[in-house]
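Subject: Sanity check before I submit

Could someone independently write out the structure tokens for this chain? I want to compare against mine line by line before I put it in a report. The sequence has 172 residues.
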Amino acid sequence: MGYQKPSATTDADLPFLRRCVELAREALDDGDEPFGSLLVDANGAVVFEDRNRVQGGDQTRHPEFEIARWAAAHLTPEERAGATAYTSGEHCAMCSAAHAWVGLGPIVYATSTAQLTAWLQEWGVAPGPVTPLPVGDVAPGIPTRGPAPELADEVRDLHARLHGAHEVHDPA
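---
Independent answer below. Compare away.
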């Protein structure tokens, strides 16, 4: 189970990733950080979705972590292995570890840890308390796809809004 380099997202991934970005927007509109995620079973059905809920002070309330908790409680090990997590932003180290520990399948992300880190540095935002690592550095056996270039500007704009950078790209 060595490191697997991320592969490109597919056209089939885009509707799921777009829903993740919608959830991220909902989170931001509600005063949370803009992250949204969903879990899709082996048949292509969305079985769980959530958005960031950290505004109350519990910084573990990431949607990717909630997916892992939900999957552990509701899916068999076989169902977890066959499920795919979609997310607006690549899993953080905490969420990557949770994903691996419960035995979930692939992770597909709209934007990467490297992209988010670069944006935050560009805007002068201080780094968080946890080193920003790609999924492969934390959970090297999990296949990943991403980022999705079609969604980069939209996700960047959400994070810019959160941090007061006030960038707006025309989605046309």
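---
OP: Matches mine. For the report I'm noting this point. The chain has a mean pLDDT of 94.
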